[in-house]
Amino acid sequence: MNFLFALLAGIGFGMGLTISGMVDPQKVLGFLDVAGDWDASLAFVMGGALMVFIPGFQIVKKQLTSPLFEKSFFLPSANSIDKPLVIGAVLFGIGWGLSGICPGPAIANISGMEDKVFGFILAMLIGMIVARRINAK
């Protein structure tokens, strides 16, 4: 049952990314170019997502003691800003700014069969392997 809901959530997420234009690297780069020809349309996408998420999260947090299909919620336990978080955020931002692609849209964009997307996914996987090895020490 969990697999089915994860699949449906993934399909919904991919459809949302595609419909909103977030899988188009040029649209994302246009959004990130605040000093140039700024495309503010993705701000509305993000604002709309927050308008759904924030009240939904508050309702779930106050009214549910556990998820419907799990034993407990999996919430992050870390609440401090540390060096690994900052380094990761900087690397993520640089990669997103240079390519216009981030992990979710990259996976949703696999069907486009673009070399740039496959290059991004390869770089992302290499980064994950390197990070895992560094954290294992």
Automatic annotation (TrEMBL):
Domain of life of the organism encoding this protein: Bacteria
Sequence intervals crossing the membrane: 41-60, 81-98, 118-135
Name of the protein in its database record: YeeE/YedE family protein
UniProt KW keywords: Membrane, Transmembrane, Transmembrane helix
